[in-house]
Amino acid sequence: MSRALLLRGGRIVDPSQRLDVIGDVYIANEKIESLGEAVDVGSRDDVDVIDCAGRVVSPGFIDVHCHLREPGREDVETIATGARAAAAGGFTAVCAMPNTDPVTDNQAAVGFIIRQAARAGASRVYPIGAISLGQRGESLAEFGEMVGAGAVAVSDDGKPVASAHLMRTALEYARTFGIPVADHCEEPTLAVGGAMNEGIVSARLGLKGVPNEAEEIMAIRDILLARRTGGHVHLCHMSTRGSVELIRWGKERGVNVTAEVCPHHLSLTEESVEGYDTNAKMNPPLRSAADVEALQQSVRDGTIDVIATDHAPHHYDEKEREFADAPNGIVGLETAFAVNVTWLVARGVIDVAMLVEKMSCAPARIFRLPGGTLRRGTVADVTVFDPDADWTVDPARFRSKGRNTPYAGQRLNGRVHLTAVDGRVIYRLEE
Amino acid sequence: MSGHAAAPLGKDLLGLEPLTSEQITLILDTAEPFKEISERVIKKVPTLRGATIVNLFFEASTRTRISFEFAEKRLSADTVNVASTGSSVQKGETLVDTARNLEAMRIDMVVIRHGASGAAQFLADRIESNVINAGDGMHEHPTQGLLDLLTLRDHFKRIAGIKVCIVGDVLHSRVARSNIWGLKKLGAHVAVCGPRSLLPNAIDELDVEVFERIEDAIDWADALNILRLQLERMQAGYIPSLREYNRVFGVSRERLERASRDVLILHPGPMNRGVEIDSDVADGPFSVILDQVTNGVAVRMAVLYLLSGGKPELAEAAKGGGSR
Ligand SMILES: [Zn+2]
Ligand SMILES: [Zn+2]
Question: pTM for this structure?
Fold first, then answer.
C-alpha cells in the first residue's frame, strides 16, 4: 500500500471538469480521493504533504507520439531512460511508436515494451503497434492480438503509408478494436531526397526541399478514407497551414479525424536550418512563419486536438555530419511543456487551461487512455508546474540519452515541479 | 611576414553570399596582377612557400582541382591531393574524422569539394585552417562565381548595370547560386532562364528576373552564363529528353544571330555540345569560355593569397617576392 499524498494549496486546473480553483488534492490508494476542499491530515505520518502554493496542479501530461528506440538502439534511448525523461517533462504517460528494430508488429513485441516499462517504474508507456508487418507497407499486422497485449493505436510512423489501399483497410479493420490509425503524412515521391522545407531558405542553402503539398496530399487522402470507412484517423505532427484547412474541412463534415502538432512546429521556422544546423533537421521539416502562425491558431481554435512531442533521440555523432545525410528528429520530452508555455501561453495564444487540454485531456480522450482528468476516483496521475518560472535548457542534464535539441542554451518559461503516477511521485524538481 | 592576423576575407571562403561587395571587388582586384604570372616563362613566385595546402576532393572534378593546383604551385605552396569520391564515407570515415585528422596534421589551408551542401562550412567550423569551398552540393561554388565576375569585368570594364542571364538547371547548380550573389552584390541585373522544373520554386524571392523563353533571354542579356545540364536530370524526370531540351533551351548561333545585339557567352564547363550549347557558339567570336579557364587560376591565386594573410596592397609586390 503506497503512502497518501496531499498536494496543498495549488491552483487546480482540470479542463475535463472545467475546474480552475485554489485548493488541495488528496490522493490515497492510487486514486484521487478529494479535490478542491481543504484536507486536514493533522499529525498523521503516513501522508506526504507537498506545498503547491503558487503552482498549478493538473492532470498528468500524456504524449501520444514518441520514439523510445528499444529494442534495437538501446545506445540512443531505452524504455527506462525514455520513461524517466517523460517524468521529468511532466508526462505521466507516453505512447511509444513501433519503428524499433525489430518493429513492434506482434503481441510479443507489445508485451516486451509493457514489461520493460513496468520495470522502469517511471511514466506509463503505452505501445503503438505497426500498421503493416515490418512497416513494409504490404500486409496488415495483427491488430487484435496487439490490442489484446496492450497496444493503444497502430501506426507505421517513421514512414508514411504509401498505399491508399492499405490505409483504407487499416481504417476499416481498426474499427473492430476502437483504436486510432496514426499516420505520418508524407507523399513519398514529392518528398524524395528532401532535407528541409522547400522555399527560399532551401533555395539559398542548396538543400532539396519538401513542399507543403507532400504532407497535405496525404492528409486529405487520409481524411477522405476516414470519411469512406468511418475509421478514426489520427494525423501525426501536422506542419502546414494547408493541413490545418484540410482538417477543418474534414471535421466540419463529421469525419472521424484528429490531429496533433509538435512544439517545434509551433515555435521554430525554416530559418533555424541556417548554418546547416542538423538539430533543426526533422521530418516534417520546420516550415515558414506563416505556417507556424496558422498552427498556433489551430491549437487555439480546436482544429488541432493534441500537442505531441515526436521525441526522437539520436546519438550525437549521427547528427554531427552533412545536413542532407543526418537523421531527422529532436528530443522533446523534457522541453515540450516549456516550449509550449513560452510560445503559446506567455504570448497569449492560449491560456494554461487550454494547454492542459492539449497536453493531457485530449490525448487521453482521443487514445482512450486512463488519466487526463482529476475526477474523484480516477487514477492519480498528476503534474505540478509553475507556468511563470524560467530556466535555461542544458541538454547535459536531460534524463533522455538524446541531446539533440535546437533549444540548447535557450531560456524558456514554464517549469515542471512534480510528476506523480498512481499517486506515487516519480519526478520532483530539485530546488 | 606572418599570416592569419587581419585577413581581409576572414578565415574561410565558403560562398559569395556572406561576402560584401568590397570583399568581392578586393579579390577581383587582387587577381589582376596574378594573371601576369601565368604569362611568364617561369610561372612561379615564392609567396606561399612553406604553406601546406590539402586539396580534398570528395567528388570528381578535374577542372577545378587542376585550376586550384596550378594556383597553389604558382604560389610555391606544398600541396597534397586527397581524392576520395565519396569512398571514405563508404569506408566508414566521416567528415568529422577527416576534420580531426586534418587538424592533427597542422595543415595551413584546405580546399574542399564535396557532394553535400554545407560540407565546407561543416569543416570550417571544426578546424583552424583556412577553408576554401571548391563546390559543395547544390549550395555554392564561390571561386567559379569569382572567375565569371572577373571575365565579365574584363570584357565590359564594369559589373554594375550589365545584364547577365543564367541559363539552364539553376535548381541544382551551385555555380548559379554563386553567380547570382556575386552579380547582384556588384550591381548587375540578373535573370535566369530554363524549364520551370529546373528553377527553384522560390526563385522570385531572390529578386531575379525569370525568362521562360530562351529567345527573350537572349534579347534582354548582355551576357549568357550557360550551365552544364547534368544528363541524369532526364532520367530523374525533370525534362523529357536532351533533344527537346536543345530544341527549346539550347543556345545556338541562329538564336544568337536573331538578337538585336552581341551577347557574351560564358560556360563553366565541361560542356555538353549540342545540348545546352552548340559548338559554333562555344567556339564562336563571343565566347569567353577559355578566358574563364585562365581567370580561374588568377582568381584562385588571389583567394589563397588573401586568406593566408596577404596584404591587398602588396599583391603586386607578391608577384616578385614572399609576403608570407
Ligand atoms: Zn513521423
Ligand atoms: Zn515520429
Answer: 0.94
